[in-house]
Amino acid sequence: MNRVLATSCFAISLALASGQMAAAQEGTSDEGAAETGLTLDAVTVNAQKREESAQDVPITLNAFTPNQIAERGLDSISDLAGQLPGVQFSEFSGSGNVSIRGVGTAIVSGTGENSVAVHIDNIFLTQPKAFTMIQEDLGSVEVLKGPQGTLYGRNSTGGVINFFSAAPSTEFGAGASLLAGNYDRYKATGYITGPLSDNVAARLSVQVEERGGYSENLTTGQELEDLSAKGGRLSIDASPAAGWDSALRISYRKEDFAGPVYDSFDANFPVVPPPFSALDPREVRSQADFDSSKELTLVSLKNTVALSDSVKLVSVTGYSDFEEKGIFDGVGSDVSVLLDRQQTSEAFTQELNLVGETDTLDWLLGVYYLKEDIDSAANTDFSSFSNLPFGSIIQSNVQSSSKTSYSVFADATYSVSDRTRIFGGVRWIQEEIEQDLYVSTAGFELCSPFTVPQENIDSDITGRLGLQYDATANAMVYGQVSRGYKVGGYSQSTCNNPFKPETIDAVEAGLKGSFNNGRVKFNAAAFYYDYSNLQLEQATPTGIPVVNAPSSHVLGADVELVALISDALSVDALVSLLDSEYDEFINTDPLLGAPPGADLSGIALNYAPAYSLLLGADYRLDFQAGGDLSLRGEVYVTDEYQVREFELPWTTQDGFTQVNAYITWTPSDDHYRVRAFVKNATDEDVLGGVLGFGGALGSFQPPRTYGIELSADF
Q: Residue 533: which region, alpha, beta or left (left: phi > 0; alpha: psi -120 to 50)?
């Protein structure tokens, strides 16, 4: 209760400050601004499934424009996380994990899903292993913080990330770029766009990328964590009839790489002592020949039909086909545990929205359907442990599952007056899962669908209710309560291991304002989360079961400030503050060094640093001879945080500072651009995740990277 009161008091303070600042700004003017006419760009977003200014949306969100995407090289979710305090992204065991405000836990055993919903062209990515794919040739990116259980539903307890591809143009155009960087990185992209007829426009983009490895296998000399990728997207926008708009996106990407890498990195808790293992974060010793690949095809078809001047029907149909296979070492040492796994996922989604608006009411009615079929197989070969009692054992896991999700939802915003609006919505969700699981060890069957049937049906109701008030024409305050839901399921690697759905109840209040004649943007929000049944994994000799933490909480705040200091200089600052704890949680992970029955109450949630911040500055030089030079520098600072819930030395990432820099030269004709960059200039070794196998095994985020890119548009 004290935490709720503290959050409420902070929110009221923000609201009062907003009203005072806005009132003061309303009666003043800035001569410099009036002379130059420069203001911060108003960004249009689709966060509430209708187009509106980001500053009008009563949600904490960050939006990136095409220019920001191009200059900062934001072509993956990994790049995006480095721009946003409070947002963490890492890959472990080939699976992507996104966390927002300490909410977001990937389940690497194959059947679980993330707590942050990732969409590409309005299609939900069901597989966390595909989170970094087909995010090139982007038009905009939106990151919504906090549970989005009404408009987005399942698996959005932490938030939502929306990627939107670049749209076709009604005028002919073409472009290409070539990037060269360290680690022998080369990336070539190209696109062509234009009209196919009076009412049809198309865009075709292609990408090819090669990169050497971030890590090395000292035993075989093989480069690990390398990349060989190719992909593309066909986009078609059409107007088949008056009042009917259609948008088709067909995307594809194939990646080959030597990985994933399980790196023994802690001398105090090695899986196998040196010289049979290497403890450097970028080195392993293994007899294995690493060889993996991922392939994703995604189809999005959006049809919008105007039923009247104020009502439209929106249909979004999606299809995804994901395949993964890999051979790699599970312990990263010369005493190897060879893993051979493969997985396929095929998903179909259909959403229908009936959207309307009047002078006082914006409303939406919707239904959603998802069907996903997953098949996977994994063999774990312990033959290198032939001198141990459990040596020469092969463990096999074969899984086939079907997931079906149904939702019905409604959302509305009602204008009580010119300044006051009430908004709210409700969503009913039903999740069905059927899973066949075969587990055997050394030829002995431990479980099968005939002995342990795994079927479950869960349903829940989520929603939101809030109030929004315009203090002035350029500043508003809001407050809301909301609820989010993440689907439960069964572990892929352990017999009869059902885990419960996650739910989160949240309260948030904030302000959004534009001041000094549009030259300053200031947004702030305070929030409190009551988290139930957080899903987490253990590592055991017989598999990776999933357990639920009964109760957790998060208290925090987000602050964003962007200011035009002069015609040439702008600065931005983003701050995330988090106070999180497991309130009730008894857990164990013997292979990681966590004793049985460990009481984890009071420990901070995973990937939830007490503070993180980004300070950035942009400086633009216009030359009389033509052209301009843009320089941007960023400093990202974070406190320490846990990557697993045990607060052990090898599960703790120390606080660190990263520096990024970008220089972009654009000639006066705007047809060419030269961009140079460096990311993680301080070359920090940042833990991505940790698993135990009798020692600390981890993955690390990318090291220092730099390069130069030449682009041309015609």
A: left
Q: Is 373 helix (H, G, I), strand (E, B) or coil?
A: strand
Encoded tokens for 680 = 């993680």
Lowest mean pLDDT among 45-49, 146-150, 491-495: 491-495
Going along the chain from its start, the domains and CATH numbers come out as 2-273+290-713 (2.40.170.20)
Report the candidate in 214, 377, 213, 383 with the shortest Cα–Cα distance to residue 288. 383
In this structure, the dihedral spanned by the alpha carbons of residues 469, 475, 479 and 480, taken in order and rounded to 10 degrees, is: 90
pLDDT of the residue at 104: 83
Torsion, Cα 16 17 23 24, to 10 degrees, reads 150
Residue 651 near residue 611 (C-beta atoms within 8 A): no
**670 band by pLDDT with thresholds 50, 70 and 90:** confident
Q: Token pair of 443, please?
A: 């030829």
**Dist. CA 47–CA 350, nearest whole Å:** 19
> Is it true that the peptide bond before 703 is cis, omega within 30 degrees of 0?
no
DSSP 275: T
* Residues contacting 171, CB < 8 A, separation 6+: 194, 195
219-232 average pLDDT score: 96
- pLDDT score of 676: 97
Q: Cβ neighbours of residue 296 under 8 Å, at least 6 residues apart? A: 130, 133, 134, 251, 252, 253, 320, 321, 322, 323
Number of H helices, E strands in the chain: 4, 44
The type of residue at 471 is A
* 370-392 core/surface letters (b: 16 or more CB in 10 A; e: else): bebebebbbbbbbebbeeeeeee
87 with 77: CB under 8 angstroms?
A: no
Query: For residue range 376-425, what is the model confidence (pLDDT) as tens digits?
Result: 998 888 776 544 444 457 888 888 999 999 999 999 999 999 999 999 99
What string of DSSP letters covers 424-485?
EEEEEEEEEEEEEEEEEETTEEEE-TTTS-EEEEEEEEEEEEEEEEEEETTEEEEEEEEEEE
Q: What is the rounded (10 degree) CA torsion for 25, 5, 466, 462?
A: 150
- Rounded Cα distance, 405 and 487, in Å: 9
How is the beta sheet containing 123-124 ordered, strand by strand?
61-64, 138-145, 159-165, 116-120, 123-124
What is the value of pTM for the model shown? 0.92
β strands within 565-669, DSSP E: 569-584, 586-589, 594-599, 611-622, 628-638, 641-642, 652-653, 656-666
Q: What single letter denotes the amino acid at residue 623?
A: F
Question: How far, CA to CA in Å, does 76 sit from each of 69, 81, 114, 130, 336?
Answer: 10, 9, 17, 11, 32
Distance CA 55, CA 44 (A): 9
Helices (H), 2-87: 2-26, 31-36, 66-72, 77-81
Cβ atoms of 49 and 127 within 8 Å: the answer is no
- In b/e form, how buried is each residue of 534-566, taking b as 16+ CB within 10 angstroms? bbbbbbeeebbbbbbbebbbbbbbbbbebbbee
What is the DSSP secondary structure assignment for residue 685, as one 8-state letter? Answer: -
Angle at CA 166, nearest 5°, toward 161 and 171?
A: 160
Angle (nearest 5°) at CA 669 between 664 and 674: 25
Burial label, 621 (beta-carbon count in 10 A; 0-12, 13-18, 19+): exposed
At 28, which amino acid appears?
T
Upper half-sphere CA count for residue 263 (Cβ side, 13 Å): 30
The two tokens of residue 252 are 């594809």
